[in-house]
Amino acid sequence: MNNLTDIKQLSRSDILALFKKADEIKGMSNSERHTLLQHRSVFTVFFENSTRTSASFQLAAQRLGTHVVSLNMAKSSTQKGESMRDTLLTLAAMQPDGLIIRHHDDGFCNLASIWLKKHNIAIINAGDGCNQHPTQGLLDLYTLYQHKDTGPLNIAIIGDIKHSRVASSLIDGLEIMSNNDIRLFGPTELMPNPRNAVRIAESMQDALDDADVVVMLRIQKERLPHNLNIDFDNWHEHYGLNENTLRYCKPDAIVMHPGPMNRGVEIIDAVADGPQSVILEQVTNGVIIRQAVLSYCLA
Ligand code: CP
Questions:
Q1: pLDDT for the residue 89
Q2: pLDDT, position 195
Q3: What's the pLDDT at 126?
Q4: What backbone phi and psi angles, to 5 degrees, belong to 106?
């Protein structure tokens, strides 16, 4: 079994192989696809809320013939004081082939893989704190390369980047794939630590200038410290994507958002639902990419 806890585990050729697998699975009939991971079983263990990742992992596994048990952590025995470690060891004792885990702590999936190292169980990270969301990074890259050549591309990522595991995995993935011009913009307090692959832009115009791709992010309110001096009420005016700010990008730029969106805050309806938006394609590709990831991890 292979773990996937961090997109940086993957090389460029691993990512291309996953995309090839995704294309192959997409081309299969339902009955052919259903035999790929027959007699496998996985638990989805989400300690944080989710719509897209949770539903698409469940659907991806079911479409490959895998038995899926989705735990409702709000009703689990963690509420009676059972530790995270005991919870995972208990699930591992039932001998599933994989655990798909979302947790609010950075690095939780790596910790889980250490706790369970004696078990032959794949640990798949469905998002851990501000750290990583590798399958979101992969589906974002897969969607992006369906529309654009593999680069170099001008890519703008706007919003609360510091707390975004989506941005973290996407930037890592873009770095692995090719030498892109990645510009980040948002309040200074919400910018990540400096890294070679990215440039912090000075304004929306600077970030979006001639962009091929723009990725909008929501404010991760659940992860923000309380003492920030940011004018959230006027967020859109400073960091929002609308018809005017979109004009800074190339005319054929694509608009991405990992969801959930806060319409009217980081993006307006006309852009989210407009001709340049690929936001629902990202969701569709989420199921396809997660099928490829399950094939990689559980094969
Ligand atoms: N993009 C994403 O992780 O969405 P969910 O929180 O709905 O899974």
A1: 98
A2: 86
A3: 98
A4: -60, 135
Mutate to test the pocket of ligand 1, among 7, 51, 220 (most ligand atoms within 8 A of CB): 51
Helix-strand-coil split of the chain, %, nearest 5: 45, 15, 40
Q: What is the DSSP letter of 163?
A: T
Task: Give the right CATH number for 7-132+286-298 from 1.10.1740.10, 3.40.50.1370, 3.40.50.1970, 3.90.660.10.
Answer: 3.40.50.1370
Select from 46, 50, 278 the residue to mutate for testing ligand 1; criterion: most ligand atoms less than 8 Å from CB.
50
Start-end of CATH 3.40.50.1370 domains in the chain: 7-132+286-298, 134-282
CB 264 within 8 A of CB 234: no
Q: Indicate the Cα dihedral angle 242, 247, 248, 253, nearest 10°.
A: 90
**CATH H superfamily, domain 134-282:** Aspartate/ornithine carbamoyltransferase (3.40.50.1370)
Rg over CA atoms, the chain: 19
- Predicted local confidence at residue 32, as pLDDT: 97
- The closest residue, in CA terms, to atom 6 on ligand 1 is 50
The C-alpha atoms of residue 8 and residue 272 are separated, in whole angstroms, by 30
Note the pLDDT of residue 151.
73
Tell how far the Cα of 48 is from the centroid of ligand 1, in angstroms.
10
Residues of the chain with pLDDT under 70: none
Separation of 276 CA from ligand 1 center, angstroms? 21
CA atoms of 251 and 27, how far apart (whole Å): 31
